[in-house]
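Entry for 2-acetamido-2-deoxy-beta-D-glucopyranose complex. Fields follow.
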Amino acid sequence: MARFNRIKHHSSTAKLVFLTSFAGLLGVALVVHFIWASSSFYVASFYSSVAPIWVLEKSGVVVVTNVTTTKIADKRENAKEKKEGTPERFLSATYADLPAPELQWEEMPPAPVPRLDGAAIQIKNIFYVFAGYGSLDYVHSHVDIYNFTSNTWVGRFDMPKEMGHSHLGVASDGRYIYVVSGQYGPQCRGPTARTFVLDTETKKWRSMPPLPAPRYAPASQLWRGRLHVMGGSKENRHTPGLEHWSIAVKDGKALENQWRTEIPIPRGGPHRACVVINDRLFVIGGQEGDFMAKPGSPIFKCSRRHEKWKVLPPMPKPNSHIECSWVIVNNSIIITGGTTEKHPVSKRMVLVGEVFQFHLDSLTWSVIGKLPFRIKTTLAGFWDGWLYFTSGQRDSGPDNPRPKKVIGEMWRTKLSL
Ligand SMILES: *[C@@H]1O[C@H](CO)[C@@H](O)[C@H](O)[C@H]1NC(C)=O
Ligand SMILES: *[C@@H]1O[C@H](CO)[C@@H](O)[C@H](O)[C@H]1NC(C)=O
Ligand SMILES: *[C@@H]1O[C@H](CO)[C@@H](O)[C@H](O)[C@H]1NC(C)=O
């Protein structure tokens, strides 16, 4: 339900505004740097101290705007407030569209079905688009395939009946696609622990050892021969999971019978981008990174491990619902759309219409363009200089950032970084 309709708050407007300001004021961008023996593991997290329901809504936040430097008047919302008889006030730039270069977007053939909270993996010029809601009461149980060379949808095949239908964790080694846990069924059903692997050459699925516990939208990635799964939400969809597990995998097979417990993620939560690049694993998103949880497993007892927090320059705006909305281009991570903090006055979800770039050398962000509209849970791909996105839930119109239509459209723009 949270994906389609705003969650009802118990908090009054006044309290919500307070929480927002509070979160913004405390917000800093953090990167935690673990050193396990010789390896590096990064978590970009967001520090705040807020009520759990609000935290849930902000889950996936990458970095928080520096309120002192970005407070601007959101004219549109101020006008609305006047109309509704609420006091005029200044709002953080979080809720406004950021100035961004225009990009020339070209509309491509739409996906066979609209989908929300699906997942996607690109392998060379082929884009596999998994599962997702068609409507709140209907979930897809198949994979659609797009060919970035012919620019056509070239096929579909079924997923295993027992596989989750949305909020999956996905990762690929270039042939095999691992599909971890996720929500099973429509509406706000709970997650399954079942985990599968697809051989994209044969289109055959194989079952993997289930996760130790089901997770909803966990961060998942292959790293150094192991499939890592962390964070996400627990069975009730609300409680952030801190656990981090991994399992050795090779050529689409688990080499172990069960998942290994790894160092917990400092703060859990769903809808994060999880990216391995230059032999480092980045988890972009999260909230409340105030201290390190203790390692959950004696396996790491002997390994040299230091943890240190590093403050990153703030992201242009908080962002979430970006788990499959990223691509790697020229040593940077490009992120298309998402959701930012709920509007403190209208209390509606505010969609994001910008394209962001995270520079891996300098660990800095920039806004590199605008999408054709604001949209969350895009599925992004990059091929031959073109940035593509499909699926997700778009805004109500140029003047209204609230979520409305679930789409299957495919768009692309020529990127020039
Ligand atoms: C926020 O902006 C102020 C004013 O420019 C600056 O002094 C401060 O260091 C910034 N804080 C962060 C966390 O970037
Ligand atoms: C993708 O399209 C190209 C160009 O039409 C074609 O050569 C290739 O076989 C296609 N691949 C798939 C898997 O459809
Ligand atoms: C990536 O870098 C190469 C080499 O500098 C450049 O030719 C290419 O245009 C860049 N790609 C994009 C999308 O800007």
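NOTE: The chain has four helices and 31 strands.
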